[in-house]
C-alpha cells in the first residue's frame, strides 16, 4: 500500500464526511481534497471539519472543490479516495465510474456505507481497483466514535488489507473491526436489530408507555449510553428505515422478522418527523409554561406527543443502585430475578442482544471480540461478552437465552466455564458503559 | 538503603472514564481500583485476612481533596466497604496535594522497613469531575497558599506554572520561540506516548506539535500567562493501586507464585523535600542558584544518594508534568541536562519514547491524566511495569531502573522514588 499523503473525501459537507476528513487531516496529516456538489458546500464542510476536531491547524490541508470541476484531478493525485456520498447504488455507482477512470494504480478507494454490497460497488473498478476497494465504515461523530469497520470482499489482497488496517488503527486511531461484506456489517446489524425490535415492542406496549417505557427498561443499567429508541431518533428515522429495510430484504437469519419496520415509523417518516434533525420524531423537546425543558414522546396509538413519565419500576431502581456502587454482577442478579412485565422485557432484550451479537461470529466477523469492539466503540453499548460475565458466565447466559426462546450461539455454547468470557478488558472497560 | 521494599504489582483505572457521568461515586472508583489491583497482583481476600490476623498488613490511601470533590473524608477506612476482609486492617489517608500518592507510598515503605507490617496496600485516588472545571480549579487552589495565591483567581495553578515558565525563560535568558517550541514538544510527546497506553485519558485525542504551538484563540485558549490548554494536564477521575512488601513477605509471595524474589523490583532510593509554599518565596530563595527549583533537584539527589545511583543508571522516567513548564524544569533536576539547556534534550529527542532518557512513556499527567491524589501511585505502577517489562505497547526496551518525580503544589512537596531490579 502506498503511503497516504493525499486523500479525496467525497461528500465532505456532511457531518460524517467533514468529521472523517478532519480525522484524516489531523491524525493522518494528509492533504485532503474536500469535494461536494459545489465549492461553497465544500467550504462549509471545511468549517465543520475544523470545529469537529477543534484545531485550526488542519485548515491549510483542506482544499475545497466540487464533483463537477475537481473530481478527476483530485482523485488522480490521491492515495486514498474516501467516498461518503448518499447511501444508494444509484448515487455511488456513477461516482465510482468516474473515480475508476481517474485513479492511479495502487490508490485505495473506500466507501462509507451502512449496508450496500462492497463487492457490487467494487464492480466499477478494474482488477487493481477491485483489489484496493474497501468499505471503511466510520461512525458518527467520527472524533468521538472511534469505530471503523473495515469491510473486505473477495477481490481484496490480504497484504493491502493488513496495511490499511494498520493505518486506520495506528495512524488514524480507529478501533478497527474487520468484517465480511454482509448486510449492515457488524455494528449496525446488531444495533439496529435491537433498536427495531424495541420499536416493535413499543407498539405492542403502546398503552403502557410505549416508546418511553421501552427506553426506560433499556436504560443505562443495561449498558448503553443512549437508550435504543432515543438512538433511532438521534440517527434519524429515515436512516433507520434504510438500514432495517435492507436487512429485512437481504438477511434470512433467526431475527429476520424483527427487521420489519413498524408502521408508525413509516407514518412519522411520511410526516417528515424524522427525529432530532427535524425537531421531532419519536421524541420532542418542548418547554412548559414556566419555561422548563420537557421531553415528550410519541404516543403511538394516540398519534400525539405526551410527556415522558417518571416510571417507578423497583427492580430498575435497585439495578441502578447496584451499578452506581460498581456491583455489576449484583445488578444483573436483580434483573435475572425480578418479577413483572418490565423485567420480562429487560431479560428478553439482554438475551436477544447477547444471542444476536454472538451469532454473527463466523458469518460477519471472525471472533466475538470483533462484535464486542464494534458495539463498544461504535454504539457505546456494553459488549455482549461482558454481559455474559456479569450474568454469571456462559451457563447463566445460555439459561437466559433459552428462557427467552432465542438461539444459543455456537461460540457461547462452546465457552469454557470459570474463565472470563470478555477478553477486551485492557482495550475497553465494559463497566464504563453501564450507567447507574 | 538496607531493608529493601519490593513492589509486587498493581493496577490503575481507565483514566478516560467520567464516573459522575456513569452515575457512580468515589466509592465505586475506589472499589473497582482495589478489586482490579488485588486481582492483578494475586492477593486474595483469604490471604489479606490471614495477614491481618498476624497484624502484618496495612492500608495507605493517597487523596488530596475528597472532602470538596466528593464530600467525604476518612478515606483510609474505606477499604472496609470494598470487602469484609479489610475489617480490622489498619488504614489511613495521606495528603500532600498532588503528591498525596507519594506520601502514602512513603508512609507505607517506612512501615515496611521498620517491619511494623510486612505488606502495604497503597491506593491513590481522586474523583474530580463532580464539579465544573472552574469550581474544581478553586478547590485545587488550596494546594497553593489559598489566601495569597488562589483566592478569587480563576484557575490559579495554570497561572502559577505560567509564572514558572516566565522565570525559566528569564533566568536562563532563553530564546522565547525556541523555549515555547520546546514546551509544545513536551506536550506532543506526552500525547503521543498516551496513544500507546490503553488506560490513558487522552489516548484518542488529537495533538501535534503544530497544534500545541498555536497558543491563544478558540481551539487552544491561553489559561495561565504563556501557557495554553495544550500545556496543561486535564481534569481526571482515576485511581491506582500498588502492593508493597518487605523481604519477609516478598519471599513468601514469590514462593507462592512459583517465582523468584528477583522477579520483583525494589524501591532503591527515595527523596522528600518541601520548598517554600508560595511561588514568590521559591523564586526569591532560588535567586543565584543554578536550579530555579533547587529543592526539586535536591530531592532527586537525595534519591540518587540513597540508591547509590545516578542519572546514567536510569533508563526511564515518570515525571510530574502537571504543566509543560514543570516537565521542562524536571529535565535538569534529573541531571539529563544542565539547567537552562533542557530544550536541547527535547529538541534532540533525548526524552522521546525512543530517546536515550525517555520521560513519561505512559503519557504522564498531560497524556495519561492527572487524578491528583492518584498520580504518585500511578507513576509507581508505571515504573514497576517498565522495569518488569510488562508495560505492553508503551514498554521502553530494556528498562531496568526507573525514577519517578511527583510534586505537590507549585513544586512545593517534592517526592522521588528510584525503582529497579
Automatic annotation (TrEMBL), chain A:
Asked if the record carries the keyword Glycosyltransferase, the reply is: no
- Superkingdom of the source? Bacteria
Domain 3-hydroxyacyl-CoA dehydrogenase C-terminal as annotated: residue spans: 185-284
Q: Where is the 3-hydroxyacyl-CoA dehydrogenase NAD binding domain?
A: 6-181
- Keyword terms, alphabetized: Oxidoreductase
Note the InterPro entries from the entry.
Answer: 3-OHacyl-CoA_DH_NAD-bd, 3HC_DH_C, 6-PGluconate_DH-like_C_sf, NAD(P)-bd_dom_sf
The record, for Gene3D superfamilies, names: 1.10.1040.50, NAD(P)-binding Rossmann-like Domain (3.40.50.720)
Q: Which GO terms describe its biological process?
A: fatty acid metabolic process
Task: Indicate yes or no for the key word Oxidoreductase.
Answer: yes
Any one Gene Ontology MF annotation carried by this entry is:
oxidoreductase activity, acting on the CH-OH group of donors, NAD or NADP as acceptor
Q: Which PANTHER family match?
A: 3-HYDROXYACYL-COA DEHYDROGENASE FAMILY PROTEIN (PTHR48075), 3-HYDROXYACYL-COA DEHYDROGENASE-RELATED (PTHR48075:SF7)
This protein is called: 3-hydroxyacyl-CoA dehydrogenase
Q: What organism is recorded for this protein?
A: Leptospira saintgironsiae
UniProtKB/TrEMBL annotation, chain B:
Q: To which species is this protein native?
A: Leptospira saintgironsiae
Q: Which Pfam families match?
A: Thiolase_C_1, Thiolase_N
**Which InterPro entries does the entry link to?**
Thiolase, Thiolase-like, Thiolase_C_2, Thiolase_N
EC number(s): the record gives 2.3.1.9
UniProt entry keywords in alphabetical sequence: Acyltransferase, Transferase
Does the keyword GTP-binding belong to this entry?
no
What is the protein name for this chain?
Acetyl-CoA acetyltransferase
Gene Ontology molecular functions:
acetyl-CoA C-acetyltransferase activity
Which residue intervals define the domain Thiolase N-terminal in the entry?
A: 5-201
